[in-house]
Amino acid sequence: MPLQSIAYASEASSGVTAEQIERLTRDAARFNVEAGVTGVLLFDGQRFVQYFEGPEDGVEAVYGRILAATSHREIVELGRGRASIRRFPYWAMRLVPVVSDDLRDLIRQDWDGLRRYEANAGAIGSAMVQLADIVTPQVNG
């Protein structure tokens, strides 16, 4: 069964603390396990970029929670698509701190690769390459 994936960017709501972000991530991970969804949440202290993947119904349930959350605002969907493999199979949700310049550059990348992935046997856009470049050293370091 093909997987669906979504990436979005948003701004943290005023007054959201690091402790609240960590709690939000733990709650999301618990919910995502039930929904069969995996992914990563990048945060630079002001903005988020999140990528998540899973079965269509699970992804839609997770996205509904995201859209209703009060911890962030100005949600912009960067990309959406189908994939035959998971890019983050071991993380129900992983919080990765990033620097602002890296997050800004990531938001500006080509997210169309999410839409092309299924049709192009694994091709990925520059956004997914940069996402992997940002996440890998943070997790392995």
Question: Can you offer a commentary on this structure?
Answer:
The chain has a five-stranded mixed β-sheet with strand order 4-1-3-2-5, with helices on both faces. The chain is α+β, with helices and mostly antiparallel strands and 141 residues long. Helices cover 41% and strands 28% of the residues. Strand 2 and strand 3 form a beta hairpin. The longest helix is centred in the N-terminal third of the chain and has 18 residues, at 18-35. It has helices spanning 18-35, 56-68, 100-107, 113-116, 126-140; strands at 3-12, 38-43, 47-54, 72-83, 94-97. The chain contains five helices and five strands; from the N terminus they run E-H-E-E-H-E-E-H-H-H.
Question: What is the secondary structure topology, with strand pairs?
Answer:
Blueprint: E1 3-12, H1 18-35, E2 38-43, E3 47-54, H2 56-68, E4 72-83, E5 94-97, H3 100-107, H4 113-116, H5 126-140
Parallel strand pairs: 2-5
Antiparallel strand pairs: 1-3, 1-4, 2-3
Helix pairs in contact: 1-2
Primary descriptors:
141 residues; globular; alpha+beta; single chain; 5-stranded mixed β-sheet; 5 strands
Briefly characterize the structure.
This protein is of the alpha+beta class and 141 residues long.
- Total count of helical runs of at least 4 residues: 5
Name the beta content range: 25-35%
Radius of gyration from CA coordinates: 14 Å
Shape: globular
The beta-strand count equals 5
Class derived from helix and strand content: alpha+beta
Biggest sheet, strands in spatial order?
4-1-3-2-5
Question: End-to-end distance, in Å?
Answer: 34 Å
Largest β sheet strand count, sense and barrel closure: 5 strands, mixed
